[in-house]
Every structure is written in structure tokens, then in C-alpha cells.
Amino acid sequence: MTKNALLTVILADGINLDLTRMAETCQGATLRQLAHLHDWHISETGYAEALGRMVAAHRGLPLASLWGDGTSSSSDGQLFHAGGRGAAKARLLYPSEWSGCSLA
User: Fold this and answer.
1) Calpha distance 22→66 (Å, rounded)
2) Which helix (H) or strand (E) holds 74?
3) Of residues 101 and 44, which shows the higher confidence score?
4) 3-class SS letters over 22-67
């Protein structure tokens, strides 16, 4: 699997595009490859760690201090759906029970 395919899976999550549509739209990766990457390499923990690293990097920039000390946020929240093997099928069968990872 390639780095580009993994970034494609992350982009699909970020723009709420299912993997079937993403595989049809993008060249270089099949639905099977994207589903494998999602099931084995994407997790709520990974997204939370990545978001923490991005926040820490932004907090270290001089410009960030113009908006305060970084102890509060005015965001309206974000919802990332991530899961393990079979999560895509679970979302189709039980959409009301699939809550994802809410960062609000």
C-alpha cells in the first residue's frame, strides 16, 4: 500500500465521502485497497493523536498567541468516524448506533 492511498482514505473521512465513491473518483487505488487501509490503519486513537500534534504545532507558532493562551476554543465541534475491521459494514447496517469520535 502506498502513502498516497493512505492519504486518500484520510481525505475521504475528512470530506465525508464513502470509500466506494473515493475509489471511483481517484486513480491508483481500488476500493479493496482503501477498505483494507481504513480497517487496519485508521482509528479514533490515531485521529485524536494527530489532532493533538497539529494543535501543539499551531500553538507553537508566534501568530497563535494573538488569539489567546490556547486554553479555550470557539469551534462548533467535529465528528470523525473511525473504526476497525468491519466498521464500514456496521455503519451501513446500524447507522443510528455508529457515533464515531466527537471532538467538541
Assistant:
1) 38
2) none
3) 44
4) HHHHCCCCCHHHHHHHHHHHCCHHHHHHHHHHHHHHHHCCHHHHHH
Chain Cα centroid distance, residue 16: 9
C-alpha cell at 91: 455503519
Check residue 27 and give its pLDDT: 85
CA 40, CA 14: separation in Å to the nearest integer? 18
Compute the distance between CA of residue 102 and CA of residue 71 in angstroms, rounded to an integer.
19
32-74 pLDDT, tens digit each: 999 999 999 999 999 999 999 998 898 888 888 888 877 776 6
Closest to 18 (Cα-Cα) out of 33, 1, 34, 3: 34
This model's pTM is above 0.70: no
Instruction: Yes or no: say if 37 and 9 are a contact pair by the CB < 8 Å rule.
Output: yes
